[in-house]
Design goal:
It contains 12 helices and 15 strands. Helix 10 runs parallel beside helix 11. By secondary structure, it is α/β, with parallel strands linked by helices. It has a 5-stranded mixed beta sheet, sandwiched between helices. A 5-stranded mixed beta sheet has the order 7-6-8-5-9, sandwiched between helices. About 4% of the residues have low confidence. The chain is globular and about 60 Å long. It folds into 2 domains: 245 residues, Double Stranded RNA Binding Domain, CATH 3.30.160.40; 85 residues, Periplasmic binding protein-like II (D-Maltodextrin-Binding Protein, domain 2).
């Protein structure tokens, strides 16, 4: 967590006393675990506040017989929660950051991005294939995933496998894997498995050269009303600087490509010695055509904070007044520059064809 003792103390002094903060979340077990972790951090910072968790189902939770890429809705896992936020039924909403579109409705912003957990994808194998890898699974083995991004990358790497859509929360997908004979393995986010305490089910973690991850994967985002300054100040100390800057670059890359869950786009980021590295790629649906590049930018995270109250604080839907504005802009520019590099090399054609084929299927 990025907030130092002074920032937390100042926030505690300025926070409303004994107010009940209403926290919106999806109903799944994983969503509740994620929300509980954010609430625990806030309770540690603000012992004078109380928190009430309000759980609800979203469109993405209700439509389980259709692949996510076919539903044609950008806010599958956020719309109902944002209605509650807009109607003042909740004060904050905890999301998996990868579920939040890069363009939010005008009245909302991401007020905190917590420290990222493992962003890579993991393979969970059917009990009879424990000890295998994707490479050593038998010919024509069926692997379940709801992600076009994963299918496009893995189909190319492992042409002997067949990939099929699998929907439902983590509990449901693991039950389908274990109790039915359809799937030899399924692909899930490592962070989700770890948060559920199911590390023992991870049979293989996919390396970036095998499968780059989704924008924002592994990080939690806290969405708030954009003009609710008290709440913005309250949650802002949860920003993790490195995670924030990596995710700004990733979201700027995706936004400039005009990508989403209906096209295969993936990223990999890292920070070292003041350099932010961003690798981004686009794929055709079958993985036969692809393009990826890497760029880097110098980031001064320790620079003095130069943002003024008159400035528009949002970048790719994120507000972070306690992180140097120059560092945020450098991260955003890196994502835009990488997107432009790919677009200039013909990425738009790959994405347009992928969209058309996905819509036609």
């Amino acid at each position: 967590m990025s907030g130092n003792g002074d920032a937390a103390a100042t926030a505690e002094e300025n926070s409303p006393k004994m107010r009940i903060i209403r926290v919106g979340t999806r109903k799944s077990q994983l969503a509740r675990i994620q929300t509980d972790s954010v609430v625990a951090m806030l309770k540690a910072l603000y012992p004078g506040l109380q928190f009430e968790i309000i759980a609800m189902s979203t469109t993405g939770d209700k439509i389980l017989d259709t692949a996510l890429s076919k539903i044609g809705e950008k806010s599958l896992f956020t719309k109902e929660l944002e209605y509650a936020l807009e109607n003042n039924e909740v004060d904050i909403v905890v999301h998996s950051l990868k579920d939040l579109p890069t363009v939010l409705p005008p009245n909302f912003t991401i007020g905190a991005i917590c420290k990222r957990e493992n962003p890579y994808d993991a393979v969970v194998f059917h009990p009879k294939f424990v000890g295998k890898t994707l490479e050593t699974l038998p010919e024509k083995s069926v692997v379940g995933t709801s992600s076009l991004r994963r299918v496009a990358q893995l189909q190319r790497k492992f042409p002997h496998l067949e990939f099929r859509s699998i929907r439902g929360n983590l509990n449901t997908r693991l039950r389908k894997l274990d109790e039915q004979q359809e799937f030899s393995a399924i692909i899930l986010a490592t962070a989700g498995l770890q948060r559920m305490g199911w590390q023992n089910r991870v049979g293989q973690i996919l390396r970036p050269e095998e499968c780059m991850y989704a924008v924002g994967q592994g990080a939690l985002g806290v969405e708030v009303r954009a003009k609710d300054q008290d709440i913005l100040d309250l949650v802002g100390v949860l920003h993790d600087p490195e995670t924030l800057l990596r995710c700004i670059a990733e979201r700027a890359f995706l936004r400039h490509l005009e990508g989403g869950c209906s096209v295969p786009v993936a990223v990999h980021t890292s920070m070292k010695d003041g350099q932010l590295y961003l690798t981004g790629g686009v794929w055709s649906l079958d993985g036969s055509d692809s393009m990826q590049e890497t760029m880097q930018a110098t980031i001064h995270v320790s620079a003095q904070h130069e943002d003024g109250p008159e400035d528009d604080p949002q970048l790719v839907g994120i507000t972070a007044r306690n992180i140097p504005r120059g560092a945020q802009l450098a991260a955003e520019n890196l994502g835009i520059s990488l997107a432009n590099l790919l677009l200039n090399k013909g990425a738009k054609n790959i994405l347009d064809i992928a969209r058309q084929l996905n819509d036609a299927c």
